[in-house]
């Protein structure tokens, strides 16, 4: 079984590659990236820059030259970056290029990670969001809306290319010692501001579970979207405590203003959009991943948060 | 004697005028003293401590020899002093006495302080002196008997006053000068109290035991006085050690005032440090130890103390008061105590009510605790007192503080052990948790996916129990009609604050433990309200939405819904219990789709629990309006009546799309609830008592 991976140097890639390396069924790993991945015996490196205009041609050439059984499109950001247009190029345009190339190469399997934040934290979310729930995104966040757009592209691709088994894994916020994303940054502070009077339920997934879910997607018979979430839920304050920090409830307007001011200055490590996710819950139902994908999370949210604490100390 | 103790006591005041009268008065005096003693009970302990500290300077007994001659003088002094004593505040009293009479007493003080000088008198020293003294006393007493009438009264009073004054003053002065710091007032008060108590106790015992025998009484009083003086002396000595000059000054006045006789006797005894002369006349109990060693001295005070009632707890030491009859006060000196500290140890072993087991008496290093009981018993005769024990304090102030602390700890422990307080504490804890949760800092790790926090509910259970059982006295009728498995309980919404869902959940949990845990649906306005929504969510409320309802019914839970929605919770008080429109019949559609039966439920009492009196604009907080209601839930009596279930049998799930059918079922449910409500309201006689 030959596999191609984009964005192998990202967090997803770091989680997946060792598993593929250890998987005896995997013959080779074609890495399509701008940077050479860590040297692994099975890896073949092909330099591709998804943000370039000729990315699609490059990808198509690479995939037709060395046909693969599955493509993991992992070249995604985990959080907003200051250069919004670049992020948009990478996520939306990059995905478009990948999808086109995959369609041309008629790959049998495509795996795309996403995030449960695409559901959006809204007051009228049901207690548990199933995969069929509409993706409302976050009106203030370009990052989240890019993700929603990517999902739309992938869904459209899936409908047009039924021969390509397309799996979308919607991950809850990933927590783990080796990760760097808004959630881990948020929890790494000694005092974490929260919204006074609100304590939404948060989910999280341990990085090991996330890697395992990606690996499972390699052979799953199902297609479609899957919520990949850890076991259990925690209120945000509980998550913060588990991570070894202290919640500090602030009145909403004050918090929002401060965060926005910091964001304008560029000094903020926390996206303003995070406020929405501190306001309302967006709890995804991992039942389908368990039944169709065979993914059973091993780590409770608690463990994921406390793993973060251990990594910090 | 009594002076010190009784300084402010009515008895003392009365005593002075009586000087002329003899025995009869004495008897009266006794009783009076007793009462006084009871008052002084608190003081008694400290006094005892002071004595003990001094080393059991224990010569107190010596004073026992009635000093007839002195008596007259003393009496005079007393009378004069009587006025000043009256002041209520002990401190003031003592000072007053000191000023007024101080002279008389000073001599006594002087002896211990000046002559003996030894700060810590060891028990051994007194021994020889004691032996000598007792005889003298005996002789004197016997001799005096014939002239009892004349002397005794005067004697008692005079001696008592003198002793008390002297003791008080000395103690006060000594302590005063010893501690210039802020504590000094306290110290002074304590010392005075100690002395006074000791004297009192001694007097009382003597009087009590020497029934009718004037001489005995007098002797006893004398002894008491002596004791008091001794104590004072001891205290003074300690203080004096610090300031020699002060001692000398005091000594001078004291000598002057003292009667020659007393002086002689005392002089003999005191230098050696054996103050404990036992008057032979004194009843057997006291007399038991003719030879006064330190122990004997100790006993004596105990014996004396016995009669007194410590009715009042010692503020400082927290000693319990004992009945008059069997009080034993043992004074022991603590060796190794800092010289500066006056440590009176009073042991009041209480045979019947002993709080502290004998083994726990840390008290006196010098004195043997074991001896106390026997001695006391001997002295008491018929009287049986309860003596609370006081743990000895290692050092004067610190010791008292420690004693107080330990007592407080014990009380606190017992209180905590009691169920009521435990529950109260649990409730407080639960409320704190709820507060933190609603603020958004509660944490919590036992949440289910709906947001109910089992841990919070557990810790809040005492509060819920109280509300349910005692505050709202919820009575539930017809709960057996709730079918097992999924069911939709449709209830009227009422009250400005939606307690009803919580109470319904509690009622189901209590009355129908066989059912799965129920959940109730709340409207968005409540669910998304800051704090309130968060708290309710943790307590089990679920946002009302078809998805949530379906999921809950799929889990075969009883589902409580309030179809009136926010309207129901926001209707003015005048429209209470009048059902609003039942939404769009969502619950009927649910029932039709899932086949779950509808159980109509009427809740009465919630409207009066939080009547809606008005509304404030609350948009800035996320509410459509802020309800203006009672500051807290009112104690209206709740009644929850479950009606006959409306089954969905014979109705196809597709009929959920039949608006007519839905409307019909909605109306039926509504009428059922309205009917039950009206029946309940008719049956209700009073809002608060049902």
UniProtKB/TrEMBL annotation, chain B:
GO terms for molecular function: acyltransferase activity. GO terms for cellular component: membrane. Keywords: Acyltransferase, Transferase. Residues 28-78 have a biased composition (Low complexity). Pfam families: Acyltransferase. Residues 487-606 form the Phospholipid/glycerol acyltransferase domain. Residues 92-114, 130-151, 241-261 have a biased composition (Basic and acidic residues). Residues 1-151, 241-313, 335-398 are annotated as: Disordered. PANTHER family: MONOACYLGLYCEROL_DIACYLGLYCEROL O-ACYLTRANSFERASE, TRANSMEMBRANE PROTEIN 68. This is Acyltransferase family protein. It comes from Corallococcus interemptor. The lineage of its organism: Bacteria, Pseudomonadati, Myxococcota, Myxococcia, Myxococcales.
